[in-house]
Amino acid sequence: MEFREFAAYADRIEDEPADLETVALVTELLSDGDGDLPVIARFVQGRIFPAWDSTTLDIGPNYLYEAIARAAGQNVTAADVESELAEVGEIGAVAASYEFGGQRGLAAFGSGDGDDSLTVGEVFAELDALAAISGDGSQGTKIDLLFGLLNRCEPIEARYLARLVLSEMRIGVGEGTVRDAIAEAFAVPVADVERALQVSNDYGLVARTAREGGTDGLADITLEIGRPVQAMLAQAGSVTDALEEWDEAAIEWKYDGARVQLHHDPDGIERDGGDTTTETTRVFSRNMEDVTAALPEVVEFAQERFDVPVILDGEVVAVNDDGDPLPFQQVLRRFRRKHDIEAAREDVTVRPSFFDCLHADGEDLLEDPLRRRHDRLANLLADGPQRSTLRISDDPEEIESIDAEALAAGHEGIMLKDPDSTYSPGRRGKNWLKRKPDVETLDLVVTGAEWGEGRRATFLGTFLLSARTGGGSYETLGKVATGITDETLADLTDLLEPHIRSEDGQTVEIEPAVVFEVGYEEIQSSPTYSSGYALRFPRFVGVREDLDVEDADSLERVEGLAERE
Ligand code: AMP
Q1: Is 136 helix (H, G, I), strand (E, B) or coil?
Q2: Are residues 489 and 512 in the same domain?
Q3: What domain range is 453 assigned to?
Q4: Share above pLDDT 70 across residues of the chain, in percent, rounded to a whole number
Q5: Phi, psi angles (nearest 5°) of residue 454
Q6: CATH number of the domain where residue 524 is located
Q7: Which residue(s) pair with 432 in the sheet?
Q8: Taking burial as the number of CB atoms within 10 A of a residue's CB, which of 20, 38, 99, 343 is the most buried?
Q9: Is the CB of 252 under 6 A from ligand 1?
Q10: Which residues are annotated as active site (predicted)?
């Protein structure tokens, strides 16, 4: 397709405010899209390369201003282009305001006497070549190349070329529009297009396959080692949300690091065109950026552990010499690093923790339930810090204790997942919940406790919590049992034992003396406790050594919070 024709379409699309009409125009554009269809499907979204491909042009706007100035003629400077931009506010309009084509410099294309028009494919080939230029003097070469392209542009082409180069297409065509237009143009179901896009992240490939292979062709698009998939995302949610939504929840530690997707093939990852390379491992970020070079530990780990092709989803965490997690900021010192990687590695060690398996030994698992995907992961990786433990439970107390365990191990908390859910790339759905942090905590007085059982028989365990009333009495509103390690229990027992007023079997009454800070998810009206309220999922945060019982939260405050909810 002539680039001029593409630009004319872009122009019509830009002028069309209605979504439906936009889809109709994009459909027409794709239907007209000859051999350049894959490029057209990307260009119309303002994308030069497929989403999974981390190639970039790697040029600043100044290169483009310089190239525009050169193509515009002797009297125009890059500074002129910039001030024009400041005035009109948009690079496409600036590029379209000049008359190009008169400057036959060394780098200008075409003979000057024949047809100088550009095709979409040529524009892509030039930009691709531009992206590959690196090293000394690359700036000049890149400007030359852009100048050559612009010099062959009519104003309408220059408008969209300039926008493409700066990733500012902005004609109102999003991913959904192109998805719908592919379905429409090649008469295939939208759901099939959607699935193929999720698996491949390649609008060009999907458009061409829909045209040439229809539904069957789309169904044949599978995961490929080396081509990243969009990461499945999580929403904030509570234990209540999870247990209301599903019969039981899968619970995992939430690692505080950076998301990684590992692609590994012990026989070497195939490159475009089918050539096998000696490269076995690639690691991608949450945004599908290639971060392999920055994370040699992950590469080494994969090479040691996996003897079949895999695609795994996980988190890379910075750890200290004991293997304990370090704050998130530390991992950022490593994550996108391009230089001095070995030196950085001396400073900060990273460790992957994988929690999902998208592909194992020739089998795509996206459509399998989490339980099965995790089983596959467990087959590949023995128990250990490099793999999440997935526990299934419908018991809030058990969930609470996993949360406590995660925090005690230095992690961020827990993730709650629907054990039967499939992997939905790029979606922030309800199937993965990151546990919502407590909105506020309460400072409550301990007025009772229970002796533990078995191993914990010499410790006070479950603690009864009360709020102060105006009249100086205490009304109960919950018990906190979980979220406390053995060591803490021993300390709490030492702290509270002197205040025991009376004992009845395992139950003890304690005089108001100690204040606990307690997190919770919700305050409910409830007949269970004397205050008339109950805390949902109370969690021990700490002892408020700095507070006297008179400073603890009042029942009035609890009522106020309950009303607000
Ligand atoms: P957030 O970044 O706060 O939206 O939380 C979601 C992120 O937590 C994911 O994108 C992962 O990077 C990270 N994460 C840590 N541990 C897990 C886990 N076990 N399952 C899923 N995501 C996790």
Answers
A1: coil
A2: yes
A3: 441-564
A4: 96
A5: 55, -125
A6: 2.40.50.140
A7: 417
A8: 38
A9: yes
A10: 254 (n6-amp-lysine intermediate)
